[in-house]
Design goal:
With 721 residues, the protein is an all-beta fold. The protein is built from 3 helices and 40 strands. The longest helix has 10 residues.
Length: 721
């Protein structure tokens, strides 16, 4: 297989995406309180209350695989909590990119909401679900399942193995709760959006806890202490999330239907031992839409223009299941074992635009038929503990990860009539396309990692980690199997001269096997290697309520495959890409009722060495300047208590649609959103207005162009019972 044929295959499996309007999720929180007076223990009182609409985030797990305060992490990390998504009426996870500096969404596969991103100039190369790698290409993500989304910036191989250098996105799922949670949400929006969501949780089984001795009083019999009454505690808790959606689209002839259900159960075996079992199933059927071509004529037609056929379709099913077992040997020593299996498959048959004819208006097309399947299996075993060496405190982690990833497909190509870009006529038959033999690529991987969070003094903290990876990769019979071994270190330091201020600096690395090309002599390529230098400052402006981060970074990615100048059918390892930039973010709830999340980034991502692409060529889909602001306020007292408004402005600069650039840039844009909401007792309502100025907005997944929705409105109501 020569490079041209391989690139054609990869192009035909590139990502695509369409944004649909969203849903409101306002989830209740609950608290349990027990009141004691003198020596008596009163009956337990369970209080259920609405959650504060708060954007406050103080900890994250993705950066260290342990609950760690953000101010103690020597690396930029952005956490988008559920409430931000609820405020903005998010139904497609890609929308959260508006609130994260240096991040743009990568359009999903033909319209699938799969949630990949460009981070600091580089494709994220997939996603993570609760710390488990997901190929992401065929795996839709429904926001009803998510508690928060965490973006770890920069190379992350020290904990997660083979990765691209920009960073990773980790979707953190909702988990069982001990309190009663019953919520139904209904959304109606522009383009015939109908969506219903459900979120239930609580205690299935309780167990009695024996009474405990109380204090001895003057009235107690001599030498006998009274015994408090027996209480109960949760033994088995659960969470059940679900969603059904039926929607049209701002794109002509596009429509979709999806079903999602996600159950999970936690067994509190002992006070120190828990076992959580989780599952997930989603069916996502939609009209497969390959967007628009990266040509200047694209910007001369309505954003609704569809280059496929109304009969184009994709039927996707995704399954996810696994467990997490945690045992605490003591307050200072814990063992964790977790496993996840993620499988997705898709049947599709659609029209594929392949280019523009010389007349500048006739779009050449082909008929494509596919069956594709991805599988991800990951087992993690970790031991974490706290200990001291003299006056130095340690929080150490040791882990072993076994993983198998694969993506396979049958693909068939057939002829299809062309279509006029400016005056399309539909009705061409997709035909009965024969499919090629099955092809598959993937890897078996072993990772062993160690990490230590070291508190040298109350003001000086050090993070150090090292991972060894052994990866056996294969790509069907087209490429030779290859074995890669890699060491991935990370070092970072945090200095806190004053309690609210953290100065940080760090160095991190990443690697990714090169398996999609051939060398002239048939030998395997070394993996891509990346490193990042980063420094910045984190400030808590209002303690545990409002915080900001400013970070500067420099990323270099080496061993990028480039065309062999002596033989264009082969590749060589001479490519290099760089990304340098500055990022700022601010998030929190400085006073009750007022929420804010703001960001700005400057990103200079370009080709620094290549045999065919000119040095200095900008990387695709990455703007130099990006900014976002969303803020909401809810009245706290008086006759209008519970009423609130929100508003946002988002800017993205011009950026190349493809790489290498072909002279087509996506135009810059400003987008303005707003919301109005009201909550009272056990119900709430919200109306979101998106793209109020009706701006023409275009996105790219590195080649094809996808228009965002024009002005649209969605109304949501939520009931808690």
């Amino acid at each position: 297989m020569n490079n041209g044929h391989l690139l054609s295959r990869l192009l035909h499996t590139s990502r695509a995406m369409q944004c649909l309007p969203g849903v409101l999720l306002l989830l209740p929180m609950a608290a349990q309180a027990q009141t004691a007076a003198s020596s008596e223990t009163l009956p337990e009182v369970v209080v259920t209350a609405d959650a504060e609409r708060s954007f406050t985030v103080t900890e994250a797990t993705t950066a260290t695989k342990l609950d760690t305060p953000l101010r103690d992490i020597p690396q930029a990390i952005n956490v988008i909590p559920r409430q931000v998504m609820a405020d903005r009426g998010v139904t497609r996870v890609q929308e959260v990119a508006d609130n994260v500096p240096g991040v743009q969404y990568s359009s999903g596969y033909g319209g699938l909401s799969s949630g990949s991103f460009f981070i600091r100039g580089f494709d994220s190369g997939g996603t993570y679900r609760d710390g488990f790698k997901d190929f992401g290409f065929l795996s839709p993500v429904d926001v009803v399942a998510l508690e928060r989304v965490e973006f770890l910036k920069g190379p992350a191989s020290v904990l997660y193995g083979q990765n691209n250098p920009g960073g990773i996105v980790n979707y953190v799922s909702k988990r069982p709760v001990p309190y009663s949670l019953n919520e139904l949400g209904f959304t109606y929006g522009s383009y015939d959006l109908y969506r219903t969501t459900a979120d239930f949780g609580g205690t299935l089984i309780s167990r009695e806890v024996p009474g405990t001795p109380g204090p001895v009083s003057a009235k107690s019999p001599k030498g006998v202490a009274p015994v408090n009454a027996a209480t109960s505690e949760p033994l088995l808790t659960y969470r059940l999330t679900g969603a059904y959606e039926n929607a049209g689209s701002h794109r002509d002839y596009n429509e979709s239907e999806s079903y999602y259900i996600g159950p999970s159960v936690t067994w509190n075996i002992t006070p120190d031992t828990t076992l959580t079992v989780f599952g997930e199933f989603q069916r996502y059927d939609y009209v497969f839409d390959r967007g628009l071509l990266p040509v200047k004529q694209t910007f001369q037609v309505p954003t609704s223009r569809f280059l496929g056929e109304p009969s184009s379709y994709a039927e996707t099913e995704s399954w996810r299941a696994g467990y997490e077992f945690i045992h605490k040997f003591s307050d200072n020593l814990q063992f964790r074992s977790a496993f996840a299996a993620i499988q997705s498959e898709q049947h599709s048959h659609f029209a594929q635009a392949s280019g523009m004819d010389t007349d500048g208006r006739t779009v050449l097309r082909g008929s494509t038929r596919r069956y594709e399947k991805s599988e991800n299996y990951t087992l993690q075993n970790e031991l974490s503990g706290r200990f001291n060496t003299g006056s130095v405190e340690h929080h150490a982690l040791v882990g072993v990860e076994l993983a198998r990833y694969s993506f396979g497909y049958n693909i068939g190509f057939g002829p299809l009539a062309s279509i006029d870009l400016f005056n399309p006529k539909y009705g061409a038959s997709l035909g009965n396309v024969a499919m090629d033999p099955w092809e598959e690529y993937g890897a078996d991987a072993l990772g062993i990692y160690v990490q230590d969070q070291i508190t040298l003094t109350s003001q000086l903290k050090l993070l150090a980690g090292l991972r060894y990876d052994y990866v056996e990769s294969q790509y069907g019979g087209a490429m030779p199997e290859q074995t890669d071994r890699a060491l991935s270190p990370r070092v970072g330091i945090v200095y806190q001269p004053w309690e609210p201020v953290s100065l940080f600096a760090g160095w991190s690395t990443a690697f990714s096997p090169n398996i999609f090309a051939l060398s002239e002599n048939g030998s395997a390529f070394d993996p891509e290697e990346s490193e990042q230098f980063e420094a910045g400052v984190k400030v808590e402006w209002v303690k545990n309520k409002l915080a900001s981060t400013i970070a500067v970074y420099d990323i270099t990615k080496e061993n990028v495959l480039t065309t062999d100048p002596k033989n264009p059918d082969y590749s060589i390892l001479t490519g290099e890409q760089k990304s340098r930039g500055v990022e700022f973010d601010l998030i929190g709830t400085p006073v009750p009722g007022w929420n804010i999340v703001a960001n700005y980034s400057y990103t200079d991502a370009y080709v620094s060495e290549d045999t065919t692409i000119p040095n200095g060529t900008k990387l695709a889909a990455v703007p130099e300047h990006q900014a976002g602001l969303w803020s909401s306020y809810e009245i706290q007292d008086g006759a209008l208590k519970g009423f609130g408004v929100g508003a946002g402005a988002f800017y993205v600069g011009a950026r190349p649609a493809t790489m290498p650039g072909n002279g087509v840039d996506l135009p810059s844009y400003w987008r303005f959103d707003a919301s109005v909401f009201y909550k009272k007792d056990n119900w709430s309502a919200q109306v979101n207005f998106k793209n109020i100025s009706d701006e023409d907005i275009y996105q790219s997944q590195g080649y094809l162009i996808y228009p965002d929705a024009p002005f649209n409105v969605q109304a949501s109501v939520t009931f808690k019972f």
